[in-house]
Amino acid sequence: MDVRQFSRRRFVGGVTAAVGAFSLRRDELFAQGQTPQFTGSDNDYDTFVKLASNENNWGPPDSVMKAMNAAWKYANRYGYPDGNVVQVIADHHGVRRDNILLTAGSGEGLNVMATTYLGPGKKVLGVSPSYASVFQQAANVKADSIQLPLTKDFTQNISQMIEAANRNARDIGFVYLCNPNNPTGVVITAKDVKELLDNIPKDMPVLIDEAYHHYVDDPAYGTAIPYVLEGRKVVVGRTFSKIAALAAMRIGYSVAPPDMIREMRVYASNSVNVLAKWGAVASLKDPAAQADVKSKTVTLRNNTSKVLESWGYATIPSQTNFFMVHLGDRTVQPVIEEFRKRGILVGRPFPPMLNHLRVSVGTPEDMEKFIQAFKAIFPQKAAATARGGR
After folding, report:
1. Which CATH number fits domain 62-286: 3.40.50.720, 3.40.350.10, 3.40.640.10, 3.40.50.300?
2. CA atoms lying within 13 Å on the CB side of residue 102
């Protein structure tokens, strides 16, 4: 791997621990992993088409809104009824209550995992680009990270990850898989997840972030929750921010063996609010609403990708509510500004993929505005095809 292509990153000690692995400065990690706070007025915010943060642009369904509105009567209470949210989640997955850790979004769960199993001298093993929150928290607790590059078809190199895990077994606090991966939208197959778990040290924890699980229709994919039932040292992260449209309500959870839940609970905030809990319960009890969002999102994602490819710009086949489009010889940051001038918020840079733009899937009206803006910004070229991934 030519390190020059990662010129936007500052290496810490050069290439580390495995071929192609690298470390990032803390400020750069934060720049990549956090969604910027909108600083304009409410009216300004409402005028933008929001395709930057992988949100559910349809918003919570009526069933969820009704449940949250009914929970306002508990706003002044501490020991309030919470819809038995932990038990509902446990029943949904066929596990016990002590397999569940409720968190303020799945992001808190990732941070809690890092705080629990990392520290000075420890490392998290993952890939880049991926969701950077875990790597950020590793830096916060003075730990390090081994970040392997994606393959040429944007998949996660499981054989290289197994090799790195075994070679650095003494130092690794846990392995991190984002599945499907953010920002590429590409899945790790169930076969590859099993290959990893079967060939790394049995006592090495593995965190599998399934934030976008609900959008997957690839039959080769499979959730990792069965490994929790087997008692393996696997933590599965889930969120209500995406399919359930509760991003600002901040509720998610981790599914793990009871002993790991007990270890992580020490660092959890226990700060999920009453409205979020009732909204989450209602969401799990309304699978039809989730299926509707998935169907609309997948159709719009695929149709938009085809339009971009017919215009001459390749996309990465995605299994999420976002996709990446290749911009040819243009880099992402100036293109983001071009879209913003046209009232559309899109992606952010994901080094080293600086010629790829991540686009979230919005409503039909949102995607039509995006396509028109894209055609205004980019000249038509010969038709392209999708690149890599599954």
Report:
1. 3.40.640.10
2. 21
